[in-house]
Amino acid sequence: MANRQTVLSYDGLDYTQMDETTDAEKEAFRDFSMRSKGYSIPAHEFMLEFRPDVLKRYRYWAHMITCEEEAGKPLSHMIAMLHHYAVIGYEDGILYEIRLSQFNGATRGEILDALAVAALHGHPLGTRSVAAAAAEALRNWEEPPHKDRWPADWSFDPHVFEAGLDYASPDATKDDLARIMDWYQTVNGEVPGYIRMLAEFRPRLLKAYRDRYEHAIRDALPKQMLPFLLLHQNTMRGFREGIRENVLLGRHLGMTRGQLTDAIFWAMYGSPENYAIADEAAGDVLRSMD
Fold this sequence. Notes:
mainly alpha
Protein backbone atom coordinates (compact mmCIF):
# COMPACT_ATOMS: atom_id res chain seq x y z
CA MET A 1 0.00 0.00 0.00
CA ALA A 2 3.01 2.33 0.20
CA ASN A 3 2.46 3.67 -3.33
CA ARG A 4 -1.03 4.91 -2.51
CA GLN A 5 0.26 8.08 -0.88
CA THR A 6 1.67 9.36 -4.17
CA VAL A 7 -1.78 9.28 -5.79
CA LEU A 8 -3.56 12.10 -3.99
CA SER A 9 -1.10 13.37 -1.41
CA TYR A 10 -1.79 16.95 -2.55
CA ASP A 11 -5.20 16.90 -0.83
CA GLY A 12 -3.79 16.31 2.63
CA LEU A 13 -5.07 12.76 3.19
CA ASP A 14 -2.80 9.82 3.97
CA TYR A 15 -3.87 6.95 1.74
CA THR A 16 -1.47 4.49 3.31
CA GLN A 17 -3.70 4.51 6.42
CA MET A 18 -7.28 4.18 5.23
CA ASP A 19 -8.76 3.42 8.66
CA GLU A 20 -6.95 6.15 10.58
CA THR A 21 -7.41 9.90 9.98
CA THR A 22 -5.63 12.48 12.11
CA ASP A 23 -6.91 15.97 12.91
CA ALA A 24 -4.00 17.32 10.86
CA GLU A 25 -5.19 15.37 7.82
CA LYS A 26 -8.73 16.70 8.22
CA GLU A 27 -7.53 20.29 8.40
CA ALA A 28 -5.22 19.79 5.41
CA PHE A 29 -8.11 18.36 3.40
CA ARG A 30 -10.37 21.28 4.39
CA ASP A 31 -7.64 23.68 3.30
CA PHE A 32 -7.39 21.90 -0.06
CA SER A 33 -11.17 22.16 -0.47
CA MET A 34 -11.12 25.87 0.31
CA ARG A 35 -8.34 26.53 -2.21
CA SER A 36 -9.84 24.44 -5.02
CA LYS A 37 -13.60 24.77 -4.48
CA GLY A 38 -14.02 27.82 -2.27
CA TYR A 39 -15.56 25.93 0.64
CA SER A 40 -15.69 22.53 2.32
CA ILE A 41 -18.45 20.41 0.78
CA PRO A 42 -21.15 19.43 3.32
CA ALA A 43 -21.07 15.79 2.23
CA HIS A 44 -17.33 15.68 2.85
CA GLU A 45 -17.71 17.38 6.22
CA PHE A 46 -20.24 14.74 7.25
CA MET A 47 -17.85 11.94 6.29
CA LEU A 48 -14.90 13.65 7.98
CA GLU A 49 -16.85 13.76 11.22
CA PHE A 50 -18.49 10.35 11.22
CA ARG A 51 -16.67 8.08 8.71
CA PRO A 52 -13.42 9.54 7.39
CA ASP A 53 -12.44 6.08 6.13
CA VAL A 54 -15.38 6.29 3.69
CA LEU A 55 -14.15 9.66 2.42
CA LYS A 56 -10.62 8.34 1.95
CA ARG A 57 -11.73 5.28 0.00
CA TYR A 58 -14.13 7.41 -2.04
CA ARG A 59 -11.39 9.90 -2.96
CA TYR A 60 -8.91 7.16 -3.81
CA TRP A 61 -11.53 5.33 -5.88
CA ALA A 62 -12.38 8.49 -7.83
CA HIS A 63 -8.74 8.96 -8.76
CA MET A 64 -8.67 5.47 -10.27
CA ILE A 65 -11.40 6.30 -12.81
CA THR A 66 -9.37 8.35 -15.29
CA CYS A 67 -7.24 6.44 -17.80
CA GLU A 68 -3.46 6.83 -17.53
CA GLU A 69 -3.14 8.77 -20.80
CA GLU A 70 -5.43 11.54 -19.47
CA ALA A 71 -4.40 11.48 -15.79
CA GLY A 72 -2.93 14.98 -16.03
CA LYS A 73 -5.96 16.47 -17.78
CA PRO A 74 -8.81 16.45 -15.19
CA LEU A 75 -10.87 19.28 -16.69
CA SER A 76 -13.00 17.07 -18.93
CA HIS A 77 -14.46 15.03 -16.07
CA MET A 78 -14.87 18.07 -13.82
CA ILE A 79 -16.94 19.79 -16.49
CA ALA A 80 -18.81 16.52 -17.10
CA MET A 81 -19.83 16.46 -13.44
CA LEU A 82 -20.82 20.14 -13.68
CA HIS A 83 -22.94 19.27 -16.71
CA HIS A 84 -24.63 16.42 -14.82
CA TYR A 85 -25.31 18.56 -11.74
CA ALA A 86 -26.76 21.29 -13.96
CA VAL A 87 -29.11 18.75 -15.59
CA ILE A 88 -30.41 17.39 -12.28
CA GLY A 89 -30.39 20.75 -10.45
CA TYR A 90 -27.86 19.98 -7.67
CA GLU A 91 -26.87 23.49 -6.57
CA ASP A 92 -23.95 22.60 -4.29
CA GLY A 93 -22.39 20.50 -7.04
CA ILE A 94 -22.90 23.18 -9.69
CA LEU A 95 -21.04 25.77 -7.63
CA TYR A 96 -18.16 23.63 -6.47
CA GLU A 97 -17.58 22.08 -9.90
CA ILE A 98 -17.49 25.56 -11.46
CA ARG A 99 -14.95 26.68 -8.85
CA LEU A 100 -12.96 23.47 -9.20
CA SER A 101 -12.96 23.82 -13.00
CA GLN A 102 -11.84 27.44 -12.70
CA PHE A 103 -9.09 26.36 -10.29
CA ASN A 104 -7.92 23.92 -12.99
CA GLY A 105 -7.89 26.53 -15.76
CA ALA A 106 -11.40 26.54 -17.26
CA THR A 107 -12.44 29.75 -18.95
CA ARG A 108 -15.83 31.41 -18.51
CA GLY A 109 -16.70 30.63 -22.12
CA GLU A 110 -16.00 26.92 -21.60
CA ILE A 111 -18.21 26.85 -18.52
CA LEU A 112 -21.05 28.64 -20.31
CA ASP A 113 -20.81 26.28 -23.27
CA ALA A 114 -21.08 23.28 -20.92
CA LEU A 115 -24.11 24.82 -19.24
CA ALA A 116 -25.69 25.40 -22.67
CA VAL A 117 -25.26 21.70 -23.44
CA ALA A 118 -26.83 20.89 -20.06
CA ALA A 119 -29.87 22.97 -21.01
CA LEU A 120 -30.62 20.41 -23.74
CA HIS A 121 -31.74 18.02 -21.00
CA GLY A 122 -31.98 20.16 -17.88
CA HIS A 123 -34.57 22.67 -19.13
CA PRO A 124 -35.73 25.46 -16.75
CA LEU A 125 -35.40 23.27 -13.64
CA GLY A 126 -31.69 22.74 -14.12
CA THR A 127 -31.04 26.26 -15.39
CA ARG A 128 -32.87 27.73 -12.39
CA SER A 129 -30.47 25.82 -10.13
CA VAL A 130 -27.53 27.09 -12.16
CA ALA A 131 -28.80 30.66 -11.74
CA ALA A 132 -29.26 30.23 -7.99
CA ALA A 133 -25.91 28.55 -7.43
CA ALA A 134 -23.53 30.22 -9.83
CA ALA A 135 -24.80 33.45 -11.44
CA GLU A 136 -22.80 35.62 -9.04
CA ALA A 137 -19.63 33.58 -9.54
CA LEU A 138 -19.99 33.86 -13.31
CA ARG A 139 -20.65 37.62 -13.16
CA ASN A 140 -17.50 38.16 -11.08
CA TRP A 141 -15.35 35.69 -13.00
CA GLU A 142 -11.59 36.05 -12.91
CA GLU A 143 -10.03 34.36 -15.90
CA PRO A 144 -7.41 31.81 -14.80
CA PRO A 145 -4.04 31.37 -16.53
CA HIS A 146 -4.54 29.45 -19.77
CA LYS A 147 -2.31 26.51 -19.00
CA ASP A 148 -2.22 23.18 -20.85
CA ARG A 149 -5.70 21.89 -19.98
CA TRP A 150 -7.00 19.71 -22.82
CA PRO A 151 -5.67 16.74 -24.78
CA ALA A 152 -3.29 17.91 -27.49
CA ASP A 153 -5.53 16.96 -30.42
CA TRP A 154 -8.74 18.51 -29.01
CA SER A 155 -9.88 21.82 -30.48
CA PHE A 156 -12.70 24.35 -30.50
CA ASP A 157 -14.87 24.41 -33.65
CA PRO A 158 -18.35 25.97 -33.30
CA HIS A 159 -19.38 24.87 -36.81
CA VAL A 160 -18.47 21.19 -36.72
CA PHE A 161 -21.97 20.03 -35.71
CA GLU A 162 -23.83 21.99 -38.37
CA ALA A 163 -25.81 19.94 -40.89
CA GLY A 164 -26.36 22.87 -43.28
CA LEU A 165 -29.99 23.62 -42.39
CA ASP A 166 -31.75 26.89 -43.23
CA TYR A 167 -32.91 28.20 -39.86
CA ALA A 168 -34.53 31.29 -41.38
CA SER A 169 -37.70 29.19 -41.70
CA PRO A 170 -39.21 26.90 -39.03
CA ASP A 171 -40.39 24.46 -41.67
CA ALA A 172 -38.34 21.33 -42.19
CA THR A 173 -38.09 20.87 -45.93
CA LYS A 174 -37.24 17.61 -47.65
CA ASP A 175 -33.77 19.05 -48.20
CA ASP A 176 -33.43 19.83 -44.47
CA LEU A 177 -34.43 16.31 -43.50
CA ALA A 178 -32.09 14.79 -46.08
CA ARG A 179 -29.22 16.90 -44.73
CA ILE A 180 -29.94 15.74 -41.17
CA MET A 181 -30.00 12.09 -42.21
CA ASP A 182 -26.81 12.54 -44.24
CA TRP A 183 -25.11 14.22 -41.26
CA TYR A 184 -25.79 11.28 -38.95
CA GLN A 185 -24.93 8.72 -41.61
CA THR A 186 -21.64 10.46 -42.38
CA VAL A 187 -20.66 11.18 -38.78
CA ASN A 188 -22.00 8.14 -36.93
CA GLY A 189 -22.50 5.62 -39.71
CA GLU A 190 -26.14 5.21 -38.63
CA VAL A 191 -29.19 7.32 -37.84
CA PRO A 192 -30.52 7.17 -34.24
CA GLY A 193 -34.08 5.93 -33.87
CA TYR A 194 -35.34 9.10 -32.21
CA ILE A 195 -34.10 11.16 -35.16
CA ARG A 196 -36.01 8.95 -37.61
CA MET A 197 -39.16 9.20 -35.48
CA LEU A 198 -38.97 12.99 -35.22
CA ALA A 199 -38.36 13.26 -38.96
CA GLU A 200 -41.49 11.23 -39.65
CA PHE A 201 -43.91 12.65 -37.09
CA ARG A 202 -42.55 16.07 -35.96
CA PRO A 203 -40.09 17.40 -38.55
CA ARG A 204 -40.37 21.00 -37.33
CA LEU A 205 -39.54 19.82 -33.80
CA LEU A 206 -36.51 17.93 -35.13
CA LYS A 207 -35.29 21.06 -36.87
CA ALA A 208 -35.75 23.13 -33.71
CA TYR A 209 -33.85 20.49 -31.72
CA ARG A 210 -31.00 20.48 -34.22
CA ASP A 211 -30.80 24.28 -33.91
CA ARG A 212 -30.24 23.92 -30.15
CA TYR A 213 -27.84 20.98 -30.55
CA GLU A 214 -25.71 22.57 -33.26
CA HIS A 215 -25.27 25.88 -31.45
CA ALA A 216 -24.86 24.89 -27.78
CA ILE A 217 -21.06 25.06 -28.06
CA ARG A 218 -20.42 28.63 -29.20
CA ASP A 219 -17.64 30.29 -27.22
CA ALA A 220 -14.69 28.08 -26.32
CA LEU A 221 -15.35 24.42 -25.36
CA PRO A 222 -13.47 21.81 -27.43
CA LYS A 223 -15.78 20.04 -29.86
CA GLN A 224 -14.86 16.67 -28.32
CA MET A 225 -16.57 17.75 -25.11
CA LEU A 226 -20.03 17.50 -26.68
CA PRO A 227 -19.86 13.70 -27.02
CA PHE A 228 -17.96 13.50 -23.71
CA LEU A 229 -20.74 15.34 -21.85
CA LEU A 230 -23.61 13.52 -23.54
CA LEU A 231 -21.94 10.11 -23.28
CA HIS A 232 -21.35 10.67 -19.55
CA GLN A 233 -24.93 11.83 -19.01
CA ASN A 234 -26.50 9.02 -21.01
CA THR A 235 -24.42 6.45 -19.14
CA MET A 236 -25.62 8.00 -15.87
CA ARG A 237 -29.20 7.55 -17.10
CA GLY A 238 -28.61 4.14 -18.67
CA PHE A 239 -29.87 5.25 -22.12
CA ARG A 240 -28.45 2.84 -24.70
CA GLU A 241 -29.21 4.93 -27.77
CA GLY A 242 -27.56 8.04 -26.36
CA ILE A 243 -24.50 6.04 -25.30
CA ARG A 244 -24.02 4.55 -28.76
CA GLU A 245 -24.66 7.83 -30.59
CA ASN A 246 -22.00 9.67 -28.62
CA VAL A 247 -19.38 6.94 -28.76
CA LEU A 248 -19.77 7.04 -32.54
CA LEU A 249 -19.62 10.84 -32.59
CA GLY A 250 -16.56 10.88 -30.35
CA ARG A 251 -14.79 8.35 -32.56
CA HIS A 252 -15.56 10.52 -35.60
CA LEU A 253 -14.02 13.53 -33.82
CA GLY A 254 -10.81 11.64 -33.14
CA MET A 255 -11.29 10.77 -29.49
CA THR A 256 -9.34 7.80 -28.20
CA ARG A 257 -10.86 4.76 -26.55
CA GLY A 258 -9.39 5.93 -23.24
CA GLN A 259 -11.09 9.32 -23.55
CA LEU A 260 -14.44 7.74 -24.43
CA THR A 261 -14.25 5.21 -21.62
CA ASP A 262 -13.33 8.03 -19.21
CA ALA A 263 -16.71 9.59 -20.00
CA ILE A 264 -18.38 6.24 -19.36
CA PHE A 265 -16.49 5.29 -16.20
CA TRP A 266 -16.96 8.70 -14.57
CA ALA A 267 -20.66 7.81 -14.68
CA MET A 268 -19.99 5.31 -11.88
CA TYR A 269 -21.33 8.12 -9.70
CA GLY A 270 -24.72 7.03 -11.07
CA SER A 271 -24.34 3.27 -10.82
CA PRO A 272 -21.52 0.89 -11.82
CA GLU A 273 -24.19 -1.46 -13.17
CA ASN A 274 -24.71 1.06 -15.98
CA TYR A 275 -21.42 -0.13 -17.42
CA ALA A 276 -23.20 -3.27 -18.56
CA ILE A 277 -25.67 -1.10 -20.49
CA ALA A 278 -22.79 0.87 -22.01
CA ASP A 279 -21.13 -2.38 -23.04
CA GLU A 280 -24.30 -3.60 -24.70
CA ALA A 281 -24.80 -0.26 -26.44
CA ALA A 282 -21.30 0.44 -27.73
CA GLY A 283 -18.86 -2.21 -26.59
CA ASP A 284 -18.46 -3.36 -30.19
CA VAL A 285 -17.40 0.14 -31.26
CA LEU A 286 -14.96 0.56 -28.37
CA ARG A 287 -13.36 -2.85 -28.96
CA SER A 288 -12.87 -2.04 -32.64
CA MET A 289 -10.81 1.05 -31.79
CA ASP A 290 -7.03 0.91 -31.72
